[in-house]
Amino acid sequence: MFYYLTLSKSLDIHPKHFGPKLREVIREKLIAETEGTCTGKYGYVVAVTKVDDIGRGRIRQDQSGFATFEVTYGCIVCRPYKGEVLDAVVTNVNKMGFFAQAGPLQLFVTQHLIPEEFEFDSADDNSWVSSDSITRIQGGTHVRVRIVGIKYDPTEVFCIATMKEDYLGVIGSDFA
Amino acid sequence: MALPKSEMEHVDAKVFENAAVISNSEVATILSEYMRQRREEKPTFQPEPLVQKTLEYVQKFNCGTNPEAVQAMRNYMETFGLKPFEWGLIANLLPEDTDEATKLIPSLVDHPDDPPEEHRSILPEELDRILAELQNLRHA
Asked: Where is the RNA polymerase Rpb4/RPC9 core domain (chain B) (predicted)?
């Protein structure tokens, strides 16, 4: 799910930027260092929307000349939690299950968490086909899944999800 | 509440205490506006691949592209004592009836283990009405 959070970060700025454009440089550096990244604590930072406050710079004592600024900023993050139901697009299918993408998040649905009526079909593109051959899970299919396990690495969030519950499953396709 | 009670223990409470939940439609509006601004500042702006992927995702899976309709839906939900993360989930998933809503969002049902003051006693008929009204607002 997406949230608007207020976070803070320490940035080191080289003395060559200590001029009239300092605030812009700090903002650009903040965006470059946080946007598109992920932390286990706050999930994926999708966009830095506002810089609330830039603290007074402290010159580092290590003779480098850099100054450290404490920046408080508002941003949109994507942080999933265990038990959350969400929609995703299938990206990759193999006989162990399939990978899906929900915005910045990658999920894996293992074969054990796919309803029994689906079978793996390795013809053409890999896909999972239902026993009545009407429903097909392949690249571009839209699925609704529930997250059952999340691994929060320092730089990545990876989820395992299930499709084996009521109201979960295929909900459409990119090609419909 | 930005997260279900069991999850709040695992996160940085200070930060998530004041977190605002944003539904996919709202993210779509905010992100497109944000990209437009960045392009104005710098015509050669190239969004990070992750941000681009997120924008495509929320444009595909949302509850409507009209910001006023989404705002009306949000205001309507807030009058029923639904927690912020529940409103976010309902907006993203758009369940059609009470059964679907309670299966997808278990916290909507009062759990006997929870202390009585947290019980909201939302009747199934009420929930059906709320969901039907949301569909109206969405297409208004």
From this structure: 14-140
Q: Can you say how many angstroms the Cα of residue A78 is from the centroid of all Cα atoms in its chain? A: 6
Q: Which residue has the tokens 């059906």?
A: B128
Any CB–CB contact under 8 A between B95 and chain A? yes
Dump pLDDT digits (tens) for B70-119.
Answer: 888 888 888 887 888 888 888 888 888 888 888 888 888 777 776 666 66
Of A49, A81, A144, the CB nearest to B34: A49
Query: Which tens digit of pLDDT belongs to each residue from A147-156?
Result: 999 988 777 7
Contact between residue B61 and residue B79 where contact means Cβ atoms under 8 Å apart: no
The contacts of residue A145 (CB under 8 Å, 6+ apart) are: A85, A86, A87, A88, A100, A107, A109, A161, A162, A163, A168
A57 vs A74: CA distance, rounded Å: 20
Interface test with A, best of B9, B12, B25, B93 (most A CBs within 10 A): B93
Reported ipTM: the value is: 0.87
Which of B1, B104, B111 would you mutate first to test chain A, the one with the most A CBs within 10 A?
A: B104
Å between A97 CA and nearest CA of chain B = 22
What is the model's pLDDT at position A2?
92
CB A143 within 8 A of CB A169: yes
pTM over 0.80, yes/no = yes
